[in-house]
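From the pipeline queue, job 12 of 40. The input is one protein chain; the requested action is below.

Action: predict structure.
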Amino acid sequence: MKREWKWLGIVLLVFAVSLAVTGIFCKLEWASIDQRHLAKTELNAQIACDYFKNDLEDGVNVAEAIDAGVVGNSGAVDRVAKTARYMIKKYPNIHSMQLVHQGQTVRVLRGKTEIVPSDLQKGSQADKDLNYCRRKRLTGIIGPAKLKNIGKGILICKPIFIKGKFWGYTVVTIKQSRLFKKTFKNLDSLSYYYRLSKTHVTGGDFQQMNSTMGQKPAQASVTFKLGGCSWKLETCRKDAGTMPGQIKGGLALGFTIAVVNSLLACLLLNYIERGKNLAKLVNTDYLTGLMSRQAFDRDASKHLESHPSEPAVGAIIDIDDFKYINDLYGHEAGDEALKAVAQVLRADFGGQGLVCRNGGDEFAVLLPDTTLTEGRAIFQKLYRHELTFVHNGKKYPYTVSLGFAAYPEQGKSREELLNRADMALYTVKSTGKGTMAAYSENMLKEGRSQLGFNLRDLAVNLPGAFFIYRQEDEKILFANKELLNLLECDNMEEFIKFVGRSVKGLLAPEDYERTIASRNAQIGDGDEGRATLDYHVITRKTHRRLKMHAVAHMVKNPYFGKIYYVILGSRGEEAD
């Protein structure tokens, strides 16, 4: 569970870091986009202001042209009116032009010229602005002012002085709805909100003229002076404050990458875990959890090669009569025995050196920085334990044999050291088992093959009928070739089928009870004894009745209980 939580934490960290990187990248890109948009907004605002100035300067130029005409004609307005009509036709933004003189106004429209009273109210802001322009001899832009017939308009006022004396005003009227119409349309098509403001010629705060911005903050602001007024254009993008499409796409891509990175992290963690498991399988014995033979050989060789002058002790350990455990209780019991031995070895030697399962029921130990005498004392701990394994809830005893050798005196390499320990082990096995011995020069290298010969070939090829059986159920555990030949059985299968694998099937029926009673009387209840018996056996093929003399030796085996080793001698065929 701890590993799973760790994995989850790593995957979530990868996901979070990927999202954070995406967020940082998108934030920086968004800021860059905003900077580019801001620069573009400022440029477009400046361009729009240039168009505004051009539109207003057309009106200023017209006013100054009329002023020049009035002055040049000494105040005669007839010829000036003709010029004014031309100007109105040339500049479509201009609604009318007026010459204001002594309370009367000569108004020039597109199709006519008329003399009308002035429509500026006395004391109004426009009237004040006119007087200000006169005093300052300034061409001023007044308004927006509310005018008759046209609604709100802009007045471009030029005071006229003839020979230094005030004569009147030339006033160019521009309908506000026409003013800057094209420029405003262009700003709108470029997705900008805008606000145009101006001050009065007399000064003061900016007064709003046109606006689509509402209360939105301006991204760009450009001011300029014209006609005695300050003008200000403020603009902002219609999508200001909203996330650009490329940022949305970047976030979606970043989220996808974060998910992919998380999946890759899962795959990588799984790959690493599989690698660890594979290394564990290679380096660990699957049944006992000890080092594998391969890992032991590698680490032991590495240690000895890197510490050639330091002492070490190598040992080979073997479970005695392990085949009996498997045959009697099954392979599951054998596995339990192996795990029990591994647990003891790990507890006794694991903290001091290397311990491995060498294969089968054999184990190997290497104790670094240990002399032969020290090794003997350490290995002696193994024999202070009550060695048992548990199978199906029941404890069973077992013994182990151990052989050991010293490095570098008795072996210059791992292979040589463990080979000498192996020779010591099989010396123990051939002389009693259940104990340990250190290697000495007089031990035969052929110990293993010699032991195998003594146990197997001698029993099978003994020149006399021989068999082994268990007292508990009278089951025959072993029969040699000579006994099979005596009973006219060609192989072990025929023998088992013929006698039923029991002593009762081997003996003539009328001799069984008497023979068992005689055996028990001679041996008694001890753990070891000997009996001599006479009984008959019947051959399988010819049904001959053979009189046999048997010598039975009983010993108590830790696995099988009381076991009888029986040698048979024939006393000839009994006559009918």
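Job complete. Residues 446-453 have pLDDT under 50 and may be disordered.
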